[in-house]
Amino acid sequence: MFNQSTTKNQRHSFAVGVEYGHEDLFLELELGTFHTTPLHAQRIANSVNSIILLKDHMVVIFKNAESITINDDFLKHTYKFRVCIKPKLPPLELSALTHREREEFIRNQAYIVTEEDMKEVNWDIKTAFQYLQQQYDARDQAYFSFSLSSSYVIPLSTHMQQEVQHAT
Question: Whole-prediction pTM value?
């Protein structure tokens, strides 16, 4: 019989990644498959500090100040772009709202983005960079800084774990 403390420290295989966004463009970056504990897998997902998109590459900066450069020739299979296709609503001044109005705003579906509002695009880094320059009238901007949207830690099936173990 397993208790919570023994299962918490057991090693399993996890797919780990993050999603960062800038305006309506989102970048999903797969950090890899790791054979580790659930807690350590979450720490790996939380290790990314920021992502900067430049004209022909992107830089992933980790919280330990290390970084990795990704371009269309190196690690292309680790990322994909998605665009939010939901029409943008004008910003609201929340401080001007009453408590009741704020509660209604929080539940307002018009401001909530769902998976159905996201469209995957088959873009390389240059196309994503050009999209942001054109979409936000930022032709002279040299880079775009992406902010954290979410992270994921997905346990792999037992069958998949065996394949990963045999591959190593």
Answer: 0.77
